[in-house]
Design a protein that fits this description.
Strand content: 35-45%
Structural class: alpha+beta
Number of strands: 8
Helix content: 10-25%
Strand order of the largest sheet: 1-2-3-4-5-6
Shape: globular
Largest sheet: 6 strands, antiparallel
Radius of gyration: 16 Å
Distance between the termini: 39 Å
Number of helices: 1
Length: 116
């Protein structure tokens, strides 16, 4: 496993590894990413959320979704780099999720105003 801290926020760290079934995978905070072989060649990005345990215990059945086609492991890592750039930009906005008894109400910006 390799961890790379991108800034001071603890959820802007990427950890790479291989799943129990040998697939290339990564975790960023609660987000899980796995490079899954396609049915007719190539690969695609499968995603998951809030997976427990270390990457080495994950299996293909733990992830879902189709985040697009991938050519190879380099393409997978490029996708993660872009995801982290986007995450860094969102963290810089200093928004926070506001929860009410009725569920999430959206984001509140740095001045306490609800983002639209």
């Amino acid at each position: 496993m390799t961890g790379a801290t991108l800034d001071s926020a603890s959820d802007a760290v990427v950890t790479f590894g291989r799943t129990a079934d040998g697939l290339v995978a990564a975790r960023v905070a609660n987000d899980a990413f796995v490079m899954v072989p396609g049915r007719i060649g190539g690969f695609y990005l499968a995603t998951g959320w809030r997976l427990s345990g270390v990457i080495e215990t994950w299996t293909r059945s733990d992830v879902y979704g189709h985040g697009g086609d991938l050519a190879d492991e380099a393409d997978f890592r490029l996708h993660l780099d872009r995801h982290l750039d986007d995450r860094r930009e969102r963290l810089a906005l200093a928004r926070r999720d506001v929860r009410t008894p009725d569920g999430p109400s959206g984001f509140v910006g740095w001045q306490g105003r609800r983002a639209r």
